[in-house]
Amino acid sequence: MAAGRHGAGTGTGTTGAPAGAGAGAAPPGTRAGGARGGLRVEAAGLTKRFGTVRAVTDVSFSVEPGQVTGFLGPNGAGKTTTLRMVLGLVRPTAGTVTVDGRPYARLDRPLSRVGAALDGAGAHPGRSGRDHLRWLAAAGGLPVRRCDEVLELTGLADAGGRKVGGFSLGMQQRLALAAAMLGDPDLLVLDEPANGLDPAGIAWLRGFLRTLAGEGRTVLVSSHVLSEVEQTVDRVVVLAAGHVAYDGVLGGLAGPTGVLVDSPDRPALAAALAAEGLGCTGDHSGALLVRPPEGSPVPVDPVRVGAAAARAGVALSHLAPTSQRLEEAFLRLVQRTEQASAAARRQQPPGPAPARPTTPAQPTTPQQPTTEEVR
Ligand SMILES: Nc1ncnc2c1ncn2[C@@H]1O[C@H](COP(=O)(O)OP(=O)(O)OP(=O)(O)O)[C@@H](O)[C@H]1O
């Protein structure tokens, strides 16, 4: 796969002149001259259809510099399609997406500003990792010494001379990251970079991405597994069935707190809570979990739960506020969004993509059709 015009082609990182190229380059993993501003990404009303397939519908979000933003969603949610639209590799059916205020294709020196890893390393199996990077560097006009820097940065320094065909999945992911870092970019767009990494590799990736964000870069990283990114991200955009289901800090995903309550006489406690209109379910240990009503932002008041038990003369053995487990909240959110989307589709005959309700002033850049689109 070639380093394309946009430098963010399938499976390649970006190429281009790195920041600090020339004398006094920063050691691997650090920046010459300290932190540099990241690039803001803004998507407005992004919609993509492939024939009759609605991959992404009216997706709006922003990605801020100095943060790791998680792009979460189950298989087929539209993550890759959206990331490809960010990078100008797929033309939106409707809507716009800008990087630093303009479409990717209109960025000045895009190869040194944006790095991407979308489909793994994509390197020829007969080439060494180092040769693969050298080839990308040559295509992007980068100094060859940058190849060794990014090999070091991604923990591949010792394996750089080995053929990529013998690389483990985790090593291939690292090579893709190395390629993405070739241009020392301000924005990193990574599609499922944790795929194939073992727990130690995931921990390493976490530190790697946090360091990049700490340097002021913008990091957008997709995953379909919340736990993979839970400790890494500052905020998340959750996609489900091509729609944004949530956009905010991870903590907010769990919603308001409930109350975990227990009694030696659980049936009596359950009856007392029901009599007060406090719906509850059993948790894993069998205790009763009083949840806020679906969609309510108001936490359950533990005093109200205790009072309900007291009025019924039920002794309590436990009473404590509790948050919904994030993974559970994520799955429920995805499920609800998918169901709502399926219901909306059943009511709508297929037709041309709807016009966006609000059209930003940003003009759509004419782009070359991608192989994906002409297939
Ligand atoms: N080139 C294409 N032609 C037709 N349909 C496509 C194309 N690319 C994506 N799709 C469809 O668009 C939807 C979203 O796919 P996409 O790959 O963006 O999801 P994803 O969230 O990245 O999934 P995964 O986690 O499995 O990679 C899916 O239904 C997929 O089949």
Question: Which key phrases capture this entry?
Answer:
375 residues; Rossmann fold; Alpha-Beta Plaits; 2 domains; elongated; binds adenosine-5'-triphosphate; ABC_transporter-like_CS; transport
Radius of gyration: 24 Å
Helix content: 25-40%
The hetero molecules present are:
adenosine-5'-triphosphate
For the biggest β-sheet, the strand order reads: 5-6-7-3-8-9
Order of helices and strands: EEEHEEHHHEHEHEEHEHEEHEHH
Number of helices: 11
How many distinct folded domains?
Answer: 2
Shape field: elongated
Pfam families: ABC_tran
Region (Disordered): 1-36, 337-375
Keywords: ATP-binding, Nucleotide-binding, Transport
Domain ABC transporter: 41-266
Describe the structure.
- The chain is 30% helix and 20% strand.
- By secondary structure, the protein is of the alpha/beta class.
- The chain folds into two domains: 41-252, 3-Layer(aba) Sandwich (Rossmann fold); 256-322, Alpha-Beta Plaits (2-Layer Sandwich).
- The strands form three sheets. A six-stranded mixed β-sheet has the order 5-6-7-3-8-9, sandwiched between helices.
- It is elongated.
- Bound molecules: adenosine-5'-triphosphate.
